[in-house]
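The material for today's practical consists of a large collection of protein records. There is nothing in a record beyond a sequence line and a structure line. As an example, a complete record with its sequence and its structure tokens follows:
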Amino acid sequence: MSGVISGGICEDGLDQQSGEAVLRERLQTGFLGIIAFSLILFMLVQARFILISLAIAIILFSLTTDAIFAISYRLKVPKWLGTTLALIGITLALLWVSTTIVTQINEVVVIAIAYAEQAQAALPSLTERLGPEVQERILIAISNFNITGWIRSLAGQASGLLSGSVLVILFVGFMFAEQVWFPTKIERLVGDAVQAQRVRRIIASIMHRVNRYLVVKTAVSGVTAFIVWLIFKATGLELAAAVAILTFVLNFIPSVGSIIATVITALLAFVLSGDLPLTAIVAIGCTITQFVIGNVLDPMLLGQTLRLSSFGIILSLAFWGAVWGIPGMFLAVPIMVALMIVCAHIPWLRPVAVLLSREGLPDDGSGDDDQQASPPSLAA
């Protein structure tokens, strides 16, 4: 009888020890995960300039690779010639965009200094209906705004934009140079030809989705920016080009970008004109433009390309905006698309893909119709 009791006690002790060991292992895994996430977040923040440039370079490389493949396939142009022309085009386009933005920033700075007193005189008439307390708070907030620091920040971002453009050009150039070795590197890294082919299909699917999203978004944002430019020109307001560029950039930020662009446009119209009816006309025109294009044209062209959760997009915007600022918000959707497709192919990460998807049915990209049109170096 005593042997049975002692045996039961021993079994209970072993079960308790094994339970404690499992709990200890889970705690260690959790702490290691927290440490790893903290280190990754630290690296993302510290190396933000290089990582943002690298991400933009990968997107440009993906877009031009599809274009080069289509041109070479249809026009029978040698691949080396298409690659050279693409690299020259990317270089000229980035330098033109950088110098244009820098020029517009300089114009904004000059006009901001000239209109600073006019803006302070116009604000009381704008806020007088809000009550004396709200008006006083707004005036205190405006008076505490450091215009000198804002101008220095703009100048610093302008110089950083030129440096980033040069770095992006270098990254894209080296990617083109090593493009032929990508399939071999993937196969040797994975160690299995079948698995390597699956990895290349995943990469091709991500490229296809992101490319379609960026092409459509560029076209839609361009149309929106052109209409806003026409509104400013028609009303005789200054900074038409700067407002159009700002609208174009902010429209790449889902959900909130168009709202921010419309609010900034209306405020600038009031500061530049000081006329409430004219400001109302500009605000209504920009609001109608953003609403029609954002709710009719944009969904019609994109269709089911993204299939992302709206709440997930907001979280992604908040996270990458906190880590990388405005460039992070611009890259939030492409990163989220890539993350969802990758997680859909990994069994233990599939719940993450389910949470990121719109209907809870993550798309792994296997049904893309354009898979066959992807570059052979990645999709074959």
